[in-house]
Prior knowledge:
Layout lengths: L1 H18 L9 H24 L6 H24 L4 H26 L1
Helix pairs in contact: 1-2, 2-3, 3-4
Amino acid sequence: MIIHSVPLVISLIWLFFTGNTMNPIALKGPDFLRFYLILLFGFYASVFALKIAEEPLSGVTRYGMIFIFILGATKLIRGIFLGKPVGFLLLILIMEIIVFLFINSNHINRKIR
């Protein structure tokens, strides 16, 4: 749990000092994408570090991945309603789904057996 909190804290510190807010949904497009990519890459780096160390993924890891996806989907929906370009965020969310399925493929295979 501690390894996953490090990218969250780093992205929130970046958000506070550069965006002068603690609400990532209120950020404009490029600033939100920077925040989101810091959070996403940091979190998934910690997930892959756990996979390399052959540690089992906990429920916190899965809930964290789902939370990050929901944050991006919320911003995507808000951008669509405001008529803003959301292409990069859409591509990031698609890639996030693919990585999520890749990471959880071993868990799903074990449950099927």
